[in-house]
Amino acid sequence: MTAAIIDGKAFAAGVRGRVAEQVGRLQADHGITPGLAVVLVGEDPASQVYVRSKGKQTVEVGMKSVEHRLDADTSEADLLALVQELNADPTIHGILVQLPLPDHLNEDLVINAIDPAKDVDGFHISNVGLLGTGQKSMVPCTPLGCLMMLREHHGSLSGLDAVVVGRSNIVGKPMAQLLLGDSCTVTIAHSRTKDLPEVVRRADIVVAAVGRPRMVPGDWIKPGATVIDVGINRVDAGEGKTRLVGDVDFDSAVEVAGAITPVPGGVGPMTIACLLANTLTACCRANGLPEPEGLTA
Ligand code: GUN
Hints:
Elements: E1 4-5, H1 8-30, E2 35-41, H2 45-60, E3 64-70, H3 76-88, E4 94-97, H4 107-111, H5 125-132, H6 141-154, E5 161-165, H7 172-181, E6 185-189, H8 196-201, E7 205-208, E8 226-229, E9 233-238, E10 241-245, H9 250-253, E11 259-260, H10 268-286
Parallel strand pairs: 1-11, 2-3, 2-4, 5-6, 5-7, 7-8, 8-11
Antiparallel strand pairs: 9-10
The structure holds guanine (GUN).
Guanine binds near residues 96 and 97.
């Protein structure tokens, strides 16, 4: 059997289209434009690429985009003052502080200074707690994108066995909470899990988010399972070139799985699409309007 390929690039384009349509309606009916502020401290090249891409896509869906680029030696007090300024700005509905921050800045302190209602990353401790208790929250973008693709592929996830490989605060833990919210039986596996291959083989849904290139081979996958590969790893491709691979060994897994996300072109494009969806959701909530349909958890 060869798996169906879940096309994240096309799916993300669809999400952006729905966001753009609803942004247009917000403007026409209420004169409101959602605004997203992105804060980048320092000059990490990968972060600069992300931030540029976020700004471009924000504008493309008709939202206001604000970028604050601060020097690498910016003090914590100055960064916190900027966050407070954005918290108080009624034209800004979403705030994203790009991580990682330089070592002298306390990430937890900075993230928890963001107004939870504007925390479109879903990293604030209040949003983590709300998600964990099944209450309305802002949901981290990458797991939200994975959930949307899973719902689209399966319809109901109720009763399915899901294994999340990886226990990060950004992906693994919120992913597990979302799957639990959709009534999956959820296992979080990690580097110390005993007999990881056997644990993964039980799963109807495998979400791999460990950051280790091609760690999950096809013979760990239950025939027909759905595989969501969150990994984006740059590896040597010979002749001085590099290429991106996931945490799953695609070539062997595609022969066993029922459906699988490729890398690139799977989960990756969904992350920014969900950031835009979260900004729209935050804007609707801030204005007491109904939440956008199909764009929340
Ligand atoms: N750095 C890499 N990915 C992300 C993300 O999703 N949010 C933030 N704030 N920083 C990141």
